[in-house]
Every structure is written in C-alpha cells, then in structure tokens.
C-alpha cells in the first residue's frame, strides 16, 4: 500500500508545471542594448527598379521632406516621376 502511495506521489510531482525562464530575461550581455531601434530611409540609384510613385505616395513625400531639410524647395503639387528611389 505504501509503495502505491509513493509511486502516485512521484507521478504527481513529475506532472507539476515547470517554471521556465528565458535566458534573455536572466542575463545581460555587454554591449547589447535594451531598446529596439526603428529605421526609415530612402535608397537611391536603383536603375529603374525603385518604388512606383502611384502605388507608394509616401516615397515622394519622404523625398520632398528630405530635400526641404537640405534647403531645396519642391513646389506643391509637383508630380515627381521617380524610377530609382525606394522607401525602406
């Protein structure tokens, strides 16, 4: 009878849920940042394989914003036909 209780106790202990921790939560690696970085930019010089400006209007808006930051004004309503620029 005692042997059956002991086996039942062992089986019950094995079936308990295990507490799992990710290694990422337990350690810190020197030189690794905690914050996630997000980037956005323009790639130029794509030799005709860039974004189609009718399908991705944010590419032309991004290019206009970048040019204005460089001191070049693009008149409002200008229809830029870009073939070598892509937003990434």
Structural description of this entry:
This protein has a domain at 40-88. It is mainly alpha-helical and 88 residues long. The protein is rod-shaped. Helices cover 34% and strands 7% of the residues. The protein has a two-stranded antiparallel sheet with strand order 1-2.
List the keywords.
single chain; 7% strand; two-stranded antiparallel sheet; flagellum; cilium; 2 strands; 3 helices; 88 residues; mainly alpha
Unreliable segments of 5+ consecutive residues:
none
Averaged pLDDT, please? 83
Strand ordering within the main sheet: 1-2
How many distinct helices?
3
How far do the termini sit from each other?
71 Å
Count of beta strands: 2
Q: What is the gyration radius calculated from CA atoms?
A: 30 Å
The percentage of residues in β strands lies in: 5-15%
Query: Could you say which structural class the secondary elements and strand pairing correspond to?
Result: mainly alpha
Q: Tell me, what's the shape?
A: rod-shaped
Protein name: Flagellar basal body P-ring protein FlgI
Pfam families: FlgI
Family: Belongs to the FlgI family.
Subunit structure: The basal body constitutes a major portion of the flagellar organelle and consists of four rings (L,P,S, and M) mounted on a central rod.
């Amino acid at each position: 009878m005692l042997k059956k209780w002991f086996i039942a106790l062992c089986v019950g202990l094995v079936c308990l849920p295990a507490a799992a921790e990710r290694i990422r939560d337990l350690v810190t690696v020197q030189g690794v940042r905690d914050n996630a970085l997000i980037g956005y930019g323009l790639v130029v010089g794509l030799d005709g394989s860039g974004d189609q400006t009718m399908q991705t209007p944010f590419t032309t808006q991004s290019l206009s914003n970048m040019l204005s930051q460089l001191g070049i004004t693009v008149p409002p309503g200008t229809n830029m036909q870009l073939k070598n620029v892509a937003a990434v």
